Amino acid sequence: MNNESKFSYFMNLSNKLNFIWFAVVVSVGLVASNALIGFNNVKELNQVQESIRNTSEVMMSLDQLHIAMLNAEAGQRAFLISNKESDLAPFIKALQNLDESIAKVGQNHSESDVQQQKINRYIEGVKARFKTLQSTVIVARNTDTGNEALLLDRAADSGGDLREEFTQIMAAEVDIRTIQLNQLKRVRKEAQVNIVVFTLLSAVMIFAILLLLVVNLRSAKKAKSELEKANDHLEEKVQARTEALEHYAEELNRSNRELEDFAFVASHDLQEPLRKIRAFGDRIEKNYGEHLDDKGKDYLARMTSAAQRMSTLITDLLELSRVTTRAKPFEEQDLNQVLQFVLDDLEMAVHDSSASVNSDVLPTIKCDASQIHQLFLNLLSNAIKFRVEGRNPIITIAVESSQLMSQDAYTFVVEDNGVGFDAEYAEKIFSPFQRLHDRKKYAGTGIGLTVCRRIVERHGGTISATSEDGKGAKFTITLLAEPTPIIQELKNEL
């Protein structure tokens, strides 16, 4: 599959996934909306059913109260006709249960406030009716016979309006219940429709989710296949790269052996003629010096000085080459101990120049201790050598924690009060054979700071210098607390 086909495939897959996700989101939204509607339907259905129940209870309690009143009227009428106390039993029972019947009516409230006002008036009318019936019975008991017809007419006339009011109230309650039943039918129908819609939407959502799972599984299978192919291709590349690195390592080893051979030649073969030149020069000066004129003595002195400089130069070049050819593995090292060894080596120079060296407490890092020793030795010996005449050298070493390449590191600042240099030479001083001062006044080959940079770079760090002419120099070195192998061994080889 070429790149264009892959791009087209992934674009189509992305479009499908986006569409399916859109369908899922829409379905979930519709299901949620439908569920809310269903919740409202259930709530409304409960309210309608509660209203119907309430209306039924209002009608039932009113009907019971009305029946009690009719029973009382019947018992009263029978008593007036027969004048027998036994015929008053329905009246007495209705009168005893009157408060309970009225309380039952009062427990429920009509759905219509107008109806409730009518019911309240009806209840008051029932109370008044019972008082009338009771007063008629009392009168009948306390009067002579012959007035029964008059009492019957009086009792019958006082109950007609109340029965008419009851009939109107019950008719209105029936109308209310009819409306409620119609409303119940509507809500039930809406609930049925909502259930159907909810079922359909749920089916759509489930189908969309299943489709999304299928597409994801297919895409995962496709991605797995592509990944396996990429891994196979990557393994081939890694194998090829490994072979190239092995070949490169062999070349590096060969180059290091050649450098070591060169170092051996330089240290033995090149130094041997120089030693002979210096030795024979010393013999000439010792045995024939008195026979030489001033010019001859000057020539002999120049020859001896040149041989000495050449020997020093070869020694410094060897030191520069050994930064990589004779490097040692990095190990945990207390830099305070390293600095103390450096000060021991410079004891005579420090004493002769009346120099003072002040240092912070140095950390422990992973490093090549011999090279860090060389680094501090070069920097401190330079600070002592390039001093201002008549001014005692003062050297300070400060350190603080820092970060380098997102790794823990330490920054060291070595500062002196010597002759310094122009700021324009801040980078050039690290180049080989770069001298800024008179050779006759300040001896050296200009290799020392180059060695310092090589050492710092092998440790994966950085070194820089700042100065003003006549105002001393400041060297800033940042070293990793734990250099990685690639930085340790390859940074200066590539």
What this model shows, in words?
By secondary structure, the chain is of the alpha+beta class. It has 11 helices and 7 strands. β4 (394-404) and β5 form a beta hairpin. The two termini are 37 Å apart.
Number of helices: 11
Taking all Cα atoms into account, the compactness measure Rg is 58 Å
Write down how many β-strands occur, each being a DSSP E stretch of 2 or more residues. 7
Parts with pLDDT < 50 across at least 5 consecutive residues: 486-494
Name the strands of the widest sheet in spatial order.
2-4-5-7-6
Distance between the termini: 37 Å
Short structural summary:
The protein is α+β, with helices and mostly antiparallel strands and 494 residues long. Helix content is 71%, strand content 9%.
What topology does this entry show?
Layout: H1 3-82, H2 89-96, H3 98-107, H4 113-142, H5 148-288, H6 294-325, E1 331-334, H7 335-345, H8 347-353, E2 356-359, E3 364-367, H9 369-385, E4 394-404, E5 407-415, H10 448-458, E6 462-467, E7 473-480, H11 485-490
Parallel strand pairs: 2-4
Antiparallel strand pairs: 1-3, 4-5, 5-7, 6-7
Throw out a few tags for this protein.
disordered C terminus, rod-shaped, two-stranded antiparallel sheet, 71% helix, alpha+beta, five-stranded mixed β-sheet, 494 residues, single chain
